[in-house]
Hints:
alpha+beta
Amino acid sequence: MKKYKTSKWDETIEEVEIVKESESCIWVNTERFGKPRLDRHLKDSAYCIYHDTWEKAYNYLLGRSKDKILAAKNRLKMAEQALVEAQALRQNAERRE
Length: 97
């Protein structure tokens, strides 16, 4: 079976061959110190998400990128408003003199 892994730190999709899965975990064959072993990973962890299809992985990354853009635009609006308020302090101080 195949799953598609997306990292929570970058915009990549990695195809992963899994041995078995449960509702919340997947198991993959790996090696450690030259010996084969079966590793269990959460499907949704702090580091990555395993998706059923490449399309679902792609849509996840696309949505996350759009959310980042929206958040950046909101932060920019707040910064612009803070600048206007800071500039207004100077104008108010000059009127008082």
